[in-house]
Design brief:
The structure is a homotetramer of 356-residue chains.
Chain A (H helix, E strand, L loop, with lengths): L3 E2 L4 E6 L5 E7 L9 H11 L17 E4 L1 E2 L2 E2 L4 E6 L21 H7 L17 H16 L4 E9 L2 E2 L18 H16 L6 E8 L13 H9 L5 E6 L10 H4 L3 E4 L2 E4 L7 E2 L2 E2 L4 E7 L9 E4 L6 E4 L10 H24 L4
Antiparallel strand pairs in A: 1-2, 2-3, 3-7, 4-7, 5-6, 8-9, 8-10, 10-16, 11-16, 12-13, 14-15, 17-18
Helix pairs in contact in A: 1-3, 1-7, 3-7, 5-7
C-alpha cells in the first residue's frame, strides 16, 4: 500500500498539505510501552517549520493529538492514531499550478496517476508536511529503542558540496544546524543564504549512525537491514540515494581492504573496521549501523522555470509562489532518524518471533 | 518475510547453496502470460557460473524445472514454482568455517541470528547461488515487461575504480563483459585479473536503465519506485549503495540545475534533463528510469585474514578455500536487471487497480 | 495486524470505546471515486445507538469527520481517514470491572493478552462501538459497489430461535426492524422485550445476499470468497458462526441434490438452484452470493453472574452496569453489510490485476 | 495472494492436480525446530488416497521431498519448500470437461476467471490433491504445537445427516473411520456405501478441538482466532460453513445461558461451560478451542447431470468420469487439523512479538 510501512510495527501515514489534518495510524506496538510526550514534542520541534531563517515561513504548532491506542501515556496494545491539524494553509498560492506542473515536484506524475483527481493544493499527499506524522511514529520508535539501549544519532554531512568534518557525536543532532564542525556548518549556512538570496535552493547529505544494536536484526535477501532502511528513507521526499557503510566507495576497493576483520574488543566480537556499515548478509553484526542519504535541492525555487501546460500542451513559463525552505536538509535530519527508527524497531519486533 | 518480495507480483526465494535445490515460488502473474523458455535460459546463462575466466569454477547447468503454474509455456493463473537442482557441491570446502566466520560474509551474523542452526555450507541461504532463482523470476518479468514495450538495459559502470565511458546501449548487456567502451572494459578486466593473481578481489558498479515506462507507476511515500527498486536490489548479495538519476551528485547542485524542466518532445511531455532518474514523488514520469548500484569486492579471498573462533572466542587466522569469483560484478549485471524487472512488474500490476 | 482488513482495499480500524475518537484509515480506493455523504450518514444511522427501544441508551451523533483522502466528496487517491469523536462516555460504569471480568466479554482475555495494560473502559477496542468505523469504511464500499451494479441486502433471519419467513427483499433492510414477515418480526421483538424485562438478552442470525456480482471474484484456497467474507464478518463482535449457501444443511445432502446444475437463463449461464451460495472453488459464479452469520446474545446482562477476581483469584458475584442492547442483531444488520461490502470491494480490486 | 496463508508463519501452496508436482513454501519457522519425518508421514497417510474403500482409487505415495530450509531434520531458519511429485495422473479422464463444466466444481468459475487459460486437468489447482501440501505444512505445525503442549484432535461429527455420539477423544482421529461411536460410524459408512452404489455422494461435518492453548492468542477484530481459523479452513475444498463453540445454536439462547461463567478450577481460571468455544473477543481464554466445519457432498458423481457447453452456450448432459471419493469427509479430517494447526501456530508466533 502506498503510504504504509513495516511488517510487525506498521505505520500508515495519511493527510494532504491542506486537508483537515495529517496523521498516522500505528499497529504493533506492544501494550505497556511508555511514551514521553515532552520528549516527543521536543523531537517534533526539530522538524517543525519556522524554526530558523532557512525554513519555510509557515507556522504550525505541530502538536499531535492522540486519538487512540493509549491509556494515559502508556500504549494499550491496540492501534494508535495521532493527528496534527492543518491550520495555516494558503491554498491560493497553488492556484496557478493546477495545469502547470512544477519541475522537480510530483505535480505532473500525480496528475497522470490520479487522472486529475489528486489534491494538488500545497503538494497534497506529496508535501514535506507529511514528514510530521512520520516523525510522530518514528519519534515514538526512537523512545522505545532508547529503552532497549539503542541510540540513533545523525548530522548534516554535506550541503551544496561542502562536507562536514569530524566524528559524529550524540550531541550534534541537538544543534540548530547540526554539523560537527562549526566552521563547516557556517560555510554551509552561507551557501544556503546565498542560494536563497538568488531565489534558488541547495541539496545535501544526511548521515545517520545507530548504536547499541544487538547482533541478528534483519533477514536475508529482501528484508535485510539495507532493504528495510532504504524502503523507509526513500519515503522522505527529495531523497535520491542511500549508501551503507563505505557505500559507493567500496566499489573501488579490493576485498583485502573492504573486508572488516573480526577481533575481540571490550570482551565481545567486533570488527577492526566498519566498511560494511554494521550489516553482513542483511543482518546487524553489532557494530554501529551507518548510512548516508542524499537530498536533492528544494525543487520550489523563486526563479522562473520552463514547464508545459497540461491543458493546452504548450510550453509556458512558471513562477512558483508559496513558502519554501531554500534547503530541506536541516529539517530532514530528524526525518531520517525517524525513518531509521521505524525500520529498526520493526526489525526488533520481527526478531522476537525467532527466539524460542 | 525474509525472502519474499512484492505486493501484487510476489516471489519467495528458497534454497541453500548445498540443499537439494534452490528455487522460487511466484504468485500474481495473470493467466495467459506467455513464457519464452529459450530466451529465459539465455538470460539465466548470463548469470550462470563458469561463463568466463573470472567466475567461479563451479559448473551448474542452471536449467530450471517448472513444477507448477504453467500449461505448456503459458501461465495458468495459480502459483508458479521453478527449481534448480544443486549438483556440483563441495561442502568439505566449508568445513573449517563452522566456527571461524569469514570477514565480509554472513557467517557470523547468521550464526547468532539462527542460534547456530543455520546451514553454513557454501554460505547457505546467503550464497550468491540464490540469485539463480531471482533471475528465473526476474527473467520472466523481463519478458512480460517487453511485451508491454518496456526494456531494461544495463552495464558494468565501474570496476575497482575504473569507470566505463559512453552512453549505455541496448546491446551492451549481451557482451561477455558488458561495458560500452571496449578499452575501459579491458582495463577493468586487467584490474580483476591482477586482483585474482594476488588472491584478492575487486568491487564495482552496475548501471541500469529502464525505457518505455508509462507515466504513473509507483506510489507515494513508502511504495515509490525508489523504495520498491531499492528493496529489491539490496536483495542481491554485496550491494551496499544505490542511487537514482543524478544520485549523490544531486546533493551538490542547486535547484535551478537539478530541476528537470518540462518540455514537449516527440509530441509528448518530457523533461529537458533527467537528474531525477525518471521518478518524481516516487512515481514514474515517462523518462528513462535510471539507477546505479555499488557492489563490494567478493569477500571470499585467498589471502589469509583475521577472524575470531566463535567457540574459543580467540582470534585466529582464516584461510578461505572454495571457488569464488574475484569480481561478482559481471555476473551481477543480469541480477540487477532481474531485481529491477520484478520491482517494475509489481508496480505495473499495482497500477491496474487504480484505473477504472 | 490486529485491526486491519484487506489486500487491495485496506482498512485499519482504531479507537477505544472511551478514547478521544474511533475511526478508520483506508487505503486503496482509486482516485475519482465519488462519496455520497448523505447516503453514508443514512447508512450509519441504521447502526447508531439510540435508534429504537432495544438499543443502548447511549446517544452519539455518529457523524464522521473526514481528515484526509478527499477533495470535496471525491477521493484523491491517497489514504482516507475518518473519525467519530467519543462524547457520551461514562467510564465510571466500568470501574468495578477492572478485576472482575464479565462473562462472554473480552475483559479476561484482553487482561492477559495486554498484561493488564488494556483500556478496559467500555470494553476498550473490543466494544461494539468499533463497528461505527467499520460501517464508515463498509458504507463507502457499498456505494462504490452500487456504482458497479452490485447490491447488498440483508435481514434479521432469526432472533432467539424465531425465524423470519419469506424471500429477502431489497426494501427489508430499511425497516426499523428488518424482517420480511411483519408477524415474525413482532414475535422476535416480543422475545427481545421479554428478555430485556428479565435483565437478560437474546441472540440471532443475520442473512445477507449480494446480487449483481460478476463471475470470477475471489481466489483459490485461502483467498476464496468464503475465506474473505468470513475473515471480515468474524470481525464483528459476537459472531460465532457463518455459513454460505445451504451451509450446514449441505452436509446432510447427497451430491445429486446439492450440486447446482448449470442452465441458460436470461441469456446467460446460471444455476438451477443455489446451494453453493454463489461460490464455486472460492470464486463467484454470477448467482447471488448468500450467507448467514450467527450472533450470540449480548453478554452484558443485568442479572448477577459468577466471575473470578483476577487479583484475589477468588470467585465473586458480578453485577454489570452500563447501557447495553438486549439484542445486538438489529444494529448488527448494517455491520454485516459493511463487512461483506469491504470483502467484495477488495476482491473486485484484486480482480483488476488479472485482466490484461 | 491466492494460495498463501498466514502472517508470521506463512505457507504458499502451489501445484495442479496434473502438474509435475504439488508443494508448499513455508516461511517463518524459527531455526532449530525439530521435524519428526516419520510422524509427519504417518499424518500424511491419514489424508492420502487409496486408504480405504471410500477413497479415490488413485494411488500416490504422498511422500514429500524437502528441497530447502532444513539441515537434516532441523529447520535452519530460511524458507522451507517441500514437494510431492504427481505420478498417477490420467488427464484423458478430463478431456470432455474442457467446455462442459461440472456442477459443484470450479470448472466454470476458473474458466471465466482465468480467461480459458486455467489448467483444467484433474481440477487443476482446485483439486483436493492440493490438500497434500496443506497437510505437509499443517503437519509440521502440529508437531511444533505438540512441543509446546498444544494438542489438536478431531473426528467425523456427521455424515449424510447421521451424527456421531459421545465425547471427542484423542484416540479417535487415529481410527480408519474416526468417529467416537462405532455404531454411529457404521451407520455413516453404510450411508456412504449406499450413495456410492447409486453413483452418488454424501456430505458431512468435521469437529475439531484444540487443547493446551495459552490464554492470549489471537487479536481483536479481523485477526481474532475465529477469523484466522475460518480463513484457513475455508481453504479446504468443499467447506461451506464453520461454527465455533455452540455456533449457530447460540443464536437461539439467552445471554444468561450462553455466557460462560468464570470459575477457579484446577487452580486456574476456567469457565463453567464453553459455549464460546474457547474464544472471547477473538482471543483464546485457555479453554478448549472448538469448532465444526461442514463439507458438501463430493460434486463429482457418476449419475448424469445438466450443464452448459461454454462454446455453444447450449445445455448438454454431462457424464463425469475419473476416480472420486463418494465422501470426502474421512480424508478431510487431517486436513481440518492441518488448517487449524497452521492458524494456531501463526497466532503463536504473532503472540511472541507482544511479550517484552
Amino acid at each position: 500500500m502506498s503510504s504504509s510501512y513495516g511488517h510487525d510495527f506498521r505505520m500508515t501515514i495519511f493527510g494532504q498539505s491542506h486537508s483537515p489534518a495529517v496523521g498516522v495510524t500505528i499497529e504493533g506496538i506492544p501494550a505497556g510501552s511508555v511514551i514521553d510526550f515532552e520528549a516527543l514534542q521536543h523531537f517534533l520541534n526539530r522538524r517543525a517549520p519556522g524554526q530558523n531563517e532557512f525554513s519555510t515561513g509557515r507556522k504550525e504548532a505541530d502538536m499531535p493529538e492522540f486519538l487512540s491506542g493509549l491509556k494515559g501515556n502508556i500504549t494499550c496494545g491496540t492501534p494508535l492514531t495521532a493527528i496534527i491539524r492543518n491550520r495555516d494553509t494558503r491554498s491560493q498560492d497553488y492556484m496557478n499550478l493546477a495545469n502547470l506542473p512544477r519541475p522537480g515536484h510530483a505535480d505532473y506524475t500525480a496528475q497522470v496517476k490520479y487522472a486529475g483527481m489528486q489534491d494538488a493544493a500545497g503538494g497534497g499527499h506529496f508535501s514535506g508536511r507529511l514528514t510530521a506524522p512520520l516523525c510522530i511514529a518514528g519519534g515514538i520508535c526512537l523512545q522505545l529503542l532508547q529503552q532497549e539501549g539503542i541510540e540513533i544519532i545523525s548530522r548534516i554531512a554535506a550541503v551544496g558540496g561542502i562536507e562536514d568534518e569530524g566524528e559524529l557525536l550524540a550531541s550534534t543532532a541537538e544543534k540548530t544546524f547540526p554539523t560537527v564542525s562549526e566552521e563547516r556548518g557556517n560555510l554551509m549556512q552561507n551557501k544556503i543564504a546565498a542560494a536563497k538570496k538568488e531565489g534558488d535552493s541547495v541539496g545535501g547529505i544526511v548521515e545517520c549512525r545507530i548504536m547499541g544494536l544487538p547482533v541478528g536484526l534483519g533477514d536475508p535477501m529482501f528484508d535485510g537491514m539495507e532493504n528495510r532502511i532504504a524502503a523507509a528513507v526513500f519515503g522522505i521526499p527529495a531523497v535520491k540515494a542511500i549508501e551503507f557503510g563505505a557505500g559507493f566507495s567500496v566499489s573501488a576497493m579490493r576485498g583485502s581492504q573492504s573486508n572488516d576483520m573480526f577481533c575481540i574488543s571490550e570482551g565481545k566480537i567486533q570488527t577492526e573496521t566498519n566498511h560494511c556499515g554494521g550489516i553482513l548478509g542483511g543482518i546487524t553484526n553489532g557494530m554501529p549501523l551507518t548510512f548516508k542519504a542524499a537530498f536533492k535541492p528544494t525543487p520550489s525555487i523563486a526563479s522562473s522555470q520552463r514547464s508545459v501546460n497540461l491543458k493546452t500542451m504548450k510550453q509556458e513559463t512558471l513562477q512558483v509562489r508559496g513558502r519554501h525552505d531554500p534547503c530541506v536538509v536541516p529539517r530532514a535530519v530528524p526525518c531520517v532518524e525517524a525513518a531509521a527508527a521505524a525500520a529498526i524497531y520493526d526489525a526488533l519486533l520481527s526478531r522476537r518471533k525467532e527466539t524460542r
